[in-house]
Amino acid sequence: MTTIMAVVIVLSGLIFFHELGHFAVARCFGMGVSVFSLGFGPKLFKYKPGKTEYALSLMPLGGYVALVGASNEEDIPEGFCRKESFSLRPAWQRLLVVAAGPVANLLLAWLLCWTLAFVWGESVLLPEIGAVGEQSPAAAAGLKAGDRILSIDGVSVQSWQEMSDAIALSEGRTLRFETARPTSSVAESDSGQSMREAFTRLTFDVTPVKSVRKSIFGEDETTWLVGVRAAGTMVTRPLSLLAAAPASAAQAWQMISLTGQSFVKLAQRVVPLDQVGGPIMIIQLVSEQMHQGLAGLLALTALISVNLGVLNLLPIPVLDGGQIVFFLWEFLFRRPVNGKVQTYAMRAGIALLVCLMLLATLNDVWRLLKNVG
Question: Which coarse location class applies to the principal site listed for this UniProt protein (predicted)?
Answer without folding.
Answer: membrane
